[in-house]
Every structure is written in C-alpha cells, then in structure tokens.
Amino acid sequence: MIGSRRARKLYFISSIVLFLLLAANGVAGAQPTAPTWLDLDFIGEQEPEEVALTLRILFLLTILSLAPALMIMLTSFTRIVVVLSFVRSALATQNMPPNQVIIAMAIFLTFFTMNPYWQQINETSLQPYLQGELPYEEAIVQGVEPVREFMFRQTREKDLALIVSLAKLERPRGPKDIPTYVLIPAFLISELKTAFQIGFLIYVPFLVIDMVVASTLMSMGMLMLPPVMISLPFKVLLFVLVDGWHLVIRSLILGFN
Questions:
Q1: Of 163, 193, 209, whose CA–CA distance to 26 is shortest?
Q2: Of 86, 93, 110, which is closest to residue 198 (Cα–Cα)?
Q3: pLDDT digits 0-9 by tens, 136-192
C-alpha cells in the first residue's frame, strides 16, 4: 500500500512537471487542462510490483531533469538569486560569499516562500488524488492552479499585456482566459524588473562610499592607490552595522506576501 502511494505520488508530480513544461513551450490552451498524451492510468491501477521498472526510471529522470528549470521559471528563485548577486557585486567582495552559498540560500528561501502554495497543492490536489477522491485529470488542473495564482500575484499588468499582444490573443476578461505559456514569460519579465529595482537601491549607499573614498584619495594626491582597497572595509563595516543580510532577506520575503 505504501509503495502504491509512492508510485502514484511520483506519477502525479511528474505529470505536473511535464504539463507546466508543455505550457511553457506554448502548447497549452487558455485554461490549464491535463494533456491527453499523459493519460497513463494503468500505472496507478496496478500494484507497485507490476509497474515496469523502465517507467519508474523515466518518471524519476523526468523530475530530476525538468525540476531545476521549472524551479527557476515558476517560483521566487529568479528574484532572490539576482538580488543576492547584486549584494555581492555592490560589496565588491569578488567571490565572497561563494556561488554555492548564494545558490543554496536562494534555494532554501524559495522553499520558504513557496511552501504555502506547495501545501495548497498537496491538500487540494495530491492527497485527494492519492486517496482516490479526485480523478487524475482534475487533480492535475487543481495542482497547477496554485502555481498560476502565485505568478499572477507577482506579474505586472503591463508585462502581461505585452506578452498577450505579442501572442496576438484576444483581450482576456480574467485570469482564466490567460494561457499558462503566456503567463510564464510575463512573470519572468516582472521578476527581473523587480530584482533590478531592488539591486539599484542596494547599490546606492555603496556607490556613495566609493565616491567619497575616491575623492578623498585624489585630494590627498594618492592617485596610485586603488580606491577599492580602501572602500571595501568601509562597505563591509556599513553592511554589518545596518545588519544588511537581515534587511535584504526581510525585504525579499515581504515582497512575495
């Protein structure tokens, strides 16, 4: 029984991943409906021992290969990692923090911000499907809706209108009339714009420090001394005194609420 639930859960998650990828490629329609070519109901009906090993490997490889791309495109990861990169560039600390630390921090912050939506998917779609209370097609549709809701909340109307006009679609009357393949690029554009706005605000105080240090060195005639060597300790000191990581992370998390 436990193995059967695991097999059905793996099948359900991989189906959502494939559906979102299909929508991102522009094949999905105006409303998120499950593609017919994913109708593999025989997997859920048989016992785990009867499920072909090749299909299990296929589902696992599908999740492992597509999940990173979907995590970047459809979650808060893009904004978080761009802002953290701006922080490191503004501090001019080169590879400190390392790329691994920035990526890991962005991943865990993404898990934190997306947790309410993933819980909604689990409660309204995955668990009813595993318990046999919800058909497969309807479970897929309900599983995609929380992701679309998150993207709609973070997408600007101007960016959404741009993609709709480029797709030559009729003016939508509501969110349900907007296809997923139109929503995804509009969401990415909005996320990048927001991330660059936050990055600009982060750069301003450190730019002031660079200008003050450079002017001081020029007035003292120390033209051969790189200003970066003098301004770097002051940047780090300022960032520590104002508790910079606390302010940056707090602003990022509140921006998604």
A1: 163
A2: 86
A3: 677 777 778 888 888 888 888 888 888 888 888 888 888 888 888 888 889 999 999
Q: Which one, of 3, 9, 43, 38, lies nearest residue 130 by Cα?
A: 9
Q: Spell out a b/e string for 142-169, using b for 16 or more CB atoms within 10 Å of the CB, else e.
A: bbbbbbbebbeebbeeebbeebbeeeee
Looking at residue 132, the DSSP 8-state letter turns out to be T
Nearest to 28 by CA among 187, 191, 183: 183
- Token code pair at residue 234: 């002051």
For the chain, the distance separating the N- and C-terminal CA atoms, rounded to the nearest angstrom, is: 39
Q: Are 155 and 183 in contact (CB under 8 A)?
A: yes
Q: Identify the band that residue 34 occupies on the pLDDT scale cut at 50, 70 and 90.
A: very low
